[in-house]
Amino acid sequence: MNAAPTLRRCVSCRQLLDRRLLWRVIRKQGKDVVLDQGMGRSAYLCPTRSCLDDAKRQKRLQRALRCEVAASIYLALERRLDGASAAASEAR
To answer: Are strands 23-27 and 41-45 parallel, antiparallel or unpaired?
Structure first.
């Protein structure tokens, strides 16, 4: 028996997707913001340039998490995006 996928909505494009396909940004106790692991208030983002740029420009992560998101978080997400595109070009 297969379990139904857990769906989450991208804060940028508002598309509903399986949570394993999205990046998870978490606000832990206090105001610490981390990626991928931990307990706390979460926001999800599609791993695409357009969603990342829109989330940064429109402050969508800040609104969803109800706190400031450091530039280092956006930088880490951009590195992931650049790493994924580099891996895809190597596969061709």
So the answer is: antiparallel
Classify burial at 69, counting beta carbons within 10 Å of its beta carbon; exposed 0-12, middle 13-18, buried 19 or more. Answer: buried
Output the pLDDT for position 83: 86
15: amino acid identity, one letter? Q
In a domain, 2, yes or no: no
Cα–chain-centroid distance for residue 87?
19
Establish if 44 belongs to a structural domain. yes
Summarize pLDDT for 43-55 with one digit per residue, the tens. 999 999 999 999 9
**Cα 84 versus chain centre, distance:** 14
Where do we find the tokens 């340039």?
49
The domain that holds 56 is classified in CATH as 3.30.1230.10
Which residues 6+ apart lie within 8 Å of 31 measured at CB? 67, 68
Angle, CA of 71, 73 and 78, to the nearest 5° = 95
